[in-house]
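#struct-help
A.M.: can someone run this one for me? Single chain, 161 residues.
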Amino acid sequence: MFETLMAEVLLMTSGILISGRMSKPATVRLPYLPESAGKARRMVREKLGEWGLPELVDDGELIVSELVANAAKTGCLTRMAVTIRRVGDRTVRVAVRDGSGALPVLMVAGEGEECHRGLALVHKLTKGRWGVVVEPFGKVVHADLVVGGCGVPMGERGVRQ
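D.P.: on it. Structure tokens below:
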């Protein structure tokens, strides 16, 4: 448990060397409110701008909005953690940690429905490169954006096609 916590602290505070420059992640803790999506979008926009990746801003903002909105619906009382980091020279990961054990479900919304479209949108924008890590006191939902739009899509069950 202690080793896992220390590894997480190292990941959150250390960066990755991209094209000779250190690329540090950013994390913000936000209340479980729909309005938190605006602060999360700002962080994603600023970090992608800092990394020189303006082509990912629109998708990144939309993805973080959906993940934060889902976390806000969990009813947790503490704060969620929203993180953006480079996980390689061609991949940016947006992640939201919340205190709920309820797992997200990818649903197909009916034609007239106004909800149940968020994860389908995340799935489409990331070409299936998203997932969930279950933790003892909640979960982390993450979505990966690929620089240049290249990436190996994943199928329904998370298996590379």
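A.M.: thanks! The chain has four helices and seven strands.
D.P.: also worth noting: Residues 1-13, 151-161 have pLDDT under 50 and may be disordered.
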